[in-house]
Specification:
The chain has 290 residues and is α/β, with parallel strands linked by helices. The protein has 2 domains: 233 residues, Rossmann fold (3-Layer(aba) Sandwich); 35 residues, no CATH class. It has a 7-stranded parallel beta sheet with strand order 3-2-4-1-5-6-7, with helices on both faces. Helix 2 crosses helix 3. It is globular and about 65 Å long. One of its GO terms (molecular function) is GTP binding. Belongs to the GPN-loop GTPase family. This is GPN-loop GTPase 3.
């Protein structure tokens, strides 16, 4: 059985960094993992590991923009349309991998996950080829600085989950940048905040994040006239509690292992595998056991 993890999320969420860290962690655990680059705009120096499969070998955003005169977003859409028209190329590239963990680094254009049909079509093709797939959706902790950005992040995650319809986990990345010390060189760009300030967004009660009607906060809010709309959005999130976030600190191996364990669980990693005989049973101290 082959496994594929789609690493998704908005630009700047840390997808490539997470992909590299995930491969390093899997290699440390003696597991076979390979990087697949699906971002036609990715720079070669952004990868710690050379991609085993690279969409830029088929088509690149730079070529599309220069030859067809498209802008970045239109060019990216064209690249994915071209990929779907040439799935035989991807099928041939995937043919050499068996019982492997494929980490698929996806682009950062959020519309690809929320309403375009490209990634759902790609997932169906991967399933047809016998790959068990799931997605990890990353949102950076520095983004979750207030309840309005929280609403935005949760709704984008919900939209992507509904669009792709595959096993899914949500990850709050860059938790190592969350600090309460103003002397820390890694202090967040949005101000000093402790982990307890971010923790309320990991698995929160959405109704607690809306100003109570008639409260001082509601009266002083700059856009308090949108309170009814905020209440409706929060009620939607509360009625469909699909989203919670796993904190990811890449400086902490236990944090990475927790995320890997959740990914394994969502894909039922190893459920269909037969036990493998150790290589040294036929030699050394075990030779006399035959």
């Amino acid at each position: 059985m082959r496994y594929a993890v789609l690493v998704t999320g908005p630009a700047g969420a840390g997808k490539s960094t997470f992909s590299n860290a995930l491969i390093t962690h899997l290699h440390t655990a003696k597991r076979s993992a390979h990087l697949v680059n699906l971002d036609p705009a990715a720079e070669a120096d952004s990868f710690e590991y050379e991609p085993a499969i690279d969409i830029k070998d088929l088509i690149s955003l730079e070529d599309v923009m220069s030859e067809l005169g498209y802008g970045p977003n239109g060019g990216l859409v064209y690249c994915f349309e071209y990929l779907l028209q040439n799935m035989d190329w991807l099928e041939e590239e995937l043919g050499g991998y068996d019982d492997d963990y494929l980490i698929i680094d996806c682009p950062g254009q959020i519309e690809l996950y929320t309403h375009h049909p490209f990634l759902p079509s790609l997932v169906r093709q991967l399933n047809r080829l016998g790959l068990r797939t799931c997605a990890a959706y990353l949102i950076e902790s520095q983004f979750m600085e207030d309840k309005y950005k929280f609403f935005s992040g949760v709704l984008s995650a919900m939209s992507a989950m509904v669009n792709l319809e595959i096993p899914w986990i949500n990850v709050m990345s860059k938790m190592d940048l969350v600090t309460a010390s103003d002397n820390d060189a890694a202090s967040g760009r949005n101000g000093i905040r402790a982990r307890k300030d971010i923790a309320r967004f990991l698995d929160p009660d959405p109704l607690l994040l809306v100003s109570a009607p008639g409260s001082r906060e509601e009266r002083t809010e700059r856009n308090s006239r949108f309170h009814a709309l905020n209440q409706a959005i929060v009620q939607l999130i509360d009625d469909h509690p699909l989203v919670s976030f796993l904190p990811l600190d890449l400086t902490n191996p236990d944090s990475i292992e927790t995320v890997v364990s959740h990914i394994d669980y969502t894909m039922q990693y190893g459920e269909d595998e037969e036990p493998k005989e150790p290589h040294d049973l036929d030699e050394g101290d075990f030779a006399d056991m035959e």
